[in-house]
Structures are given as C-alpha cells and as structure tokens.
C-alpha cells in the first residue's frame, strides 16, 4: 500500500509542475509577438538561479558575494545591443510559409548577427569578470583570487544558457522552433529516463553522484529523446530555405537527438554533482515538491547551448 506521505508529496509535485509549465508557456508563447517578454522572464529566473547557486557554493567557498555573480550573469543581455541596432534583420523568430524561402542574404545575416551577438557577450563577460578579479585582489588580497574565479565560473554557468536564449530570439532563423526543441527534449528525456529506470533499472551508473540513476534509465531517456527529435525535425525542419529535404532533416534529427539527449542528462549530472559537493539535496525550496528553480532548469543548462551549436551546423549545411 502506498505511503500517504509519498502520495501527498507526489500530488504537490505534479500540481507545482503543472503551474510552472503554464506560467512558462504563457511567457514563451507571448514572445512570438513581444520577443523581449520571454527574455525579461528569463532574467527573473537568472536572478533566482544565481542566488540559489551562490547559497549552495558558499558552503565550500567563503566569502562568495551575490553582486559580482549577478552582474557577470547579466552580461547575457549584452547581445541585445546588436538586436536593437539592427532590428530590420531580426524578423525571422517564427517563420511562416509566406517567408519561405528566405532571400539570398539570409545566411550572411545569420552568421553576422550570431557572431556579433556572441562577441558582444564574450567581451562584456570578460570585462566584468576581470574587473571582479582585480577589485577582489586589490581590496581583499591575493588569497581571494580563488573566490573571485569561483564567482566568475558560477556566473558563466547560468549565463551561457540564457545568452543562448537571447541569440535564438533574434539571431537564429526559426529561433522559436529551435527553443521549443531545446526546452522540450530534456523533459521527454527526463520522463523516459525516470520511467525506464523505475521499472527496468538494475545497473547503477553514478552511485556517488545520484544513486537512483541507472544505465537502463539513461538509454531509455536517450532513445526517447532521439526519436522525438527525429520526428520533430521531419515536421518542422523540412521544406524550402532555410530548411532541408526530408531525408537530410530526418538524418540530422537523429544525430541531433542523440546529442541533445546526452547533453541534457550531462546537465542533470553536473547539477547533482554540485549538490553532492555542497552537501545538500536541492538548490532551494521555492518550488514545492521540486526544490529550487535551478533544480528544474539543470537539464537546459547544457541543452540550450547545444541546440544553438546544432542550429549553426544545420544552417551551414545549406551552403
């Protein structure tokens, strides 16, 4: 007979998950018409994620300050400078049939926007991170150098997926479709890995990191994510420029699905390792039944940047 406490905990988890999904979906779908609204929502998530990560790392790094990590993390907004300056090149967040095929300059615009957007982020992050190191060493002494580096690394950990979302929003053709893929695939993988591991799991793969993870769960999640991505590519990435033929899109989908499925699980494992190192179960308790925001977004830490790289390769194959 099921434990009433476990049933209550599961119900709380499901209720919170549904509410989270609905809130997230509202902001995400609204970005089709007002693109900055999803970036604003991600900025709010960034603040919470940064606070949760800092609180966890403070158990092994003292002192560790919120402000330098937050400032460095918010360099993820730096590419919006390019977006603001060249709005006439950013009308492809969600392409419809009347926009296909794109004109002959679409690849040049894509590479240009992506490169300058990424470069703007890199320059901003390096400047802020260097300033943080200099200030800490000058004011606190060289013994604080490891702490400043830990702050910069923490900021990079949460900033990279967020800056990838920003770049998808204005620099990548059909960025909305790519974001759906990058955000949904980890959910598919997580559900399939959990179900497979629960009913078929026998061989533990990471006992020191997460004792409940099994090789059966890993392969079950990977298979489900790969199949989902392949079908997704056949539906949404088949057609005229900048899309591919159904043969190329399905083949690319298989490879992309395998890479995305593994990368999302790597993100989960890294987050689990950090929690183990910090000797805590969750990053926070803001979400009943789930823990912290960072506990719910750990898989996309890797999947969104990975999807960005896959988008670059996919569109360059059109050359």
From TrEMBL:
The chain crosses the membrane at residues 12-30, 36-57, 64-86, 110-135, 155-172, 178-197, 218-239, 300-317. GO terms for cellular component: plasma membrane. Belongs to the CDS family. GO terms for molecular function: phosphatidate cytidylyltransferase activity. Pathway: Lipid metabolism; Phospholipid metabolism; CDP-diacylglycerol biosynthesis; CDP-diacylglycerol from sn-glycerol 3-phosphate: step 3/3. Keywords: Cell membrane, Lipid biosynthesis, Lipid metabolism, Membrane, Nucleotidyltransferase, Phospholipid biosynthesis, Phospholipid metabolism, Transferase, Transmembrane, Transmembrane helix. It comes from the Bacteria. The keyword Phosphoprotein does not apply. This is Phosphatidate cytidylyltransferase. It catalyses: a 1,2-diacyl-sn-glycero-3-phosphate + CTP + H(+) = a CDP-1,2-diacyl-sn-glycerol + diphosphate. It comes from Fastidiosipila sanguinis.
């Amino acid at each position: 007979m099921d434990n009433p406490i476990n049933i209550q905990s599961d119900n709380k988890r499901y209720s919170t998950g549904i509410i989270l999904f609905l809130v997230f979906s509202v902001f995400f779908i609204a970005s089709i018409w007002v693109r900055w609204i999803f970036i604003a929502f991600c900025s709010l998530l960034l603040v919470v994620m940064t606070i949760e990560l800092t609180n966890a790392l403070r158990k092994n790094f003292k002192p560790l300050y919120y402000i330098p990590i937050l400032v460095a993390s918010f360099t993820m907004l730096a590419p919006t400078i390019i977006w603001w300056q060249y709005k006439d090149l950013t009308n492809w967040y969600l392409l419809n049939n009347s926009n296909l095929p794109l004109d002959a300059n679409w690849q040049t615009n894509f590479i240009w926007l992506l490169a300058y957007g990424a470069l703007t982020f890199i320059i901003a992050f390096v400047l802020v991170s260097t300033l943080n190191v200099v200030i800490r060493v000058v004011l606190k002494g060289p013994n604080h150098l490891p702490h400043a580096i830990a702050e910069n690394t923490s900021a990079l950990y949460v900033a990279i997926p967020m800056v990838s979302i920003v770049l998808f929003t204005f620099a990548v053709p059909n960025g909305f479709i790519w974001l759906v893929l990058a955000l949904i695939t980890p959910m598919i993988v997580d559900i399939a890995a959990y179900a497979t591991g629960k009913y078929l799991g026998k061989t533990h793969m990471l006992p020191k990191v997460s004792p409940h993870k099994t090789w059966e769960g890993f392969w079950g999640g990977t298979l489900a994510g790969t199949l989902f991505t392949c079908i997704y590519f056949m539906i949404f990435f088949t057609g005229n420029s900048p899309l591919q033929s159904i043969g190329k899109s399905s083949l690319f989908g298989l490879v992309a699905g395998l890479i995305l499925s593994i990368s999302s699980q790597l993100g989960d494992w890294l987050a689990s390792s950090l929690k183990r190192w910090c000797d805590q179960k969750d990053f926070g308790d803001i979400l009943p039944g789930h823990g912290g925001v960072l506990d719910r977004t750990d898989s996309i830490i890797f999947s969104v940047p990975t999807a960005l790289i896959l988008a670059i390769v996919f569109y360059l194959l059109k050359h």
